[in-house]
Amino acid sequence: MDIIRLFYEYFESKGHKRVSSSSLIPEGDNTVLFTTAGMQQFKPYYLGRVSPHGNKVVSVQKCLRVDDIDEVGDSTHNTFFEMLGNFSFNYPIGEGSYFKDMAIEYGYEFIHEVLGLEIDYVTIFKGDEKSPKDTETLAIWKRLAGKKGIDLEIKELGREDNFWGPTGSEGPCGPTTEIFVNGVEVWNIVFNQYYADTNGGLQELKQQGVDTGGGLERIMSQVEGVTSIYETQQYALIIDNMQKSFPDQSAEVYRILFDHIRAAMFLLSEGVIPSNKAQGYILRRLLRKSMSLLSAHDRPLELISEIIDTFIGIYSTRYPELEKSKQTTQMMIQEEYSLFKDSLSRGMRYADKILKKKRIPQMSGEEAFLLSSTYGLSPELMKLQGFSFDEKDFEMYKTQHQHISRAGAVKKFGGHGLLLDTGELKAADQAELQIVTRLHSATHLLHKALREVLGPEVEQRGSDITAERLRFDFSFDRKLTTEELQTVENTVNEYIHSGVEVTISSMKLDEAKQSGALYLHNRAYPDMVDVYSFGDISKEICGGPHVHKTQEIGVFKIKKEEAVARGVRRIRGIII
User: Fold this and answer.
1) CA separation for the pair 479, 570 (Å, rounded)
2) Alpha-carbon distances, residue 159 vs 39, 141, 164, 291, 489 (angstroms)
3) Burial (CB count <10 Å: 0-12, 13-18, 19+), residue 210
4) Beta strand pairing status for 538-541 and 528-534?
5) Which of 298, 229, 288 is nearest to 260 (CA)?
6) Residue ranges in the chain modelled with pLDDT below 50
7) pTM for the model
């Protein structure tokens, strides 16, 4: 059964506009590290901005959640997944918008009548001292059961199960209703009905909305009548191939390899580079764990490559960036494996040095933590290498380190968090915001200058901007000469001193590409994008913010040029 095709056909027949999946890296959203739900790209439309897609949309969104990353390996947990979602904005005044009645009927019909799944029961919010019982949803389910001529069990549950939000101290929130099949939640409808203030008070939103989510893999398991996603036909084949290539491992090992390599492949396809910070840290963790488990395999890179090829065959129709970035993905994995082997070798020498001084072959928790934090050897890898250590003590030192790191972040940003944190741009206050805005605009001119000096094969691979500097990663296969760096710097400053205006245009993605705007080829964009033009110098798809005229940037200086990975260079620059 082609669940995605049936999903799109059903909701498009109900007047929903199909919207492509957004990137796994949220743009302009500092509340999460990754895209964790289908509604994230639509957040502005729940807060009053007019949707260019209309008030009814449907999407299949690629998501990544790492809260339970340590639980991956059992039959239920995974990091990467796809979320089916239908959404309604601007109810009741928006043309075509809908709320509880239609959302519930759509959910019932798709799950039971289209997919043929038998519903065990549904749940609603029973209310508490903070929020009233959702009697409206209860009545709708009862009416629907009568209309369809079915017996339907309706369970009333509390806030933890059937109330969403707000995500911070205040904001949109509301009750939810869920559909269960074989005891598994397969459909969750969030009703953005209220606005919660900082004191917990609720007010009815003037613009209400519906946010529905259904995990594709969870639904797939129920359609096929299996208890785990790893038992579905498509995925069981991958597990079987792993067992043939890497026999005599536990089911947990095969599941971790499946999950972590798939998630890493998607992150690499979007230009994330393994590092020790933010998204890059999660990517490195996924790869290092996989490499640790494969350390006993005679050709680990070959097996990883085979697994990725299989995944590309499954997903590339929906996500063509996987095929386009395949060569870069393999190159980055090879680079990370080289670093992993080097860390493993140095870590082993360090561990041997410690153990030679001991009467018993066991490290303390502190020694094991130092080995892990300094050389990147995970507890699992240390065990695989035959090292014994005090695991409880290890966790204590790990927790202490996390507290110290968080305290350092609070101290750095004055205990108030960041005024701006898009993942790419970070600023603590208005003064820093002005600086990062100038630096951000400088990256566009740097990108153009690099292509001008080195050739059009140069492509952006990522950037990171703070009030102290900009960091710009780009594709190039060798170190730049001193003369080339000086020419690039001079060219950027010529662009700045030209004093051209920076303009912004909103347009459809295809139109933006046809206009010649530069964009990240391995990044998934929404259907409507903003294009920033720096006179006739540069035109790029971007989320801003930027200066109004290039002269506002100042004087650009290149401080350092270095290798990040094979075929990827990095420039660090400042403005004065």
Assistant:
1) 10
2) 20, 19, 8, 41, 57
3) buried
4) antiparallel
5) 288
6) 405-416
7) 0.70
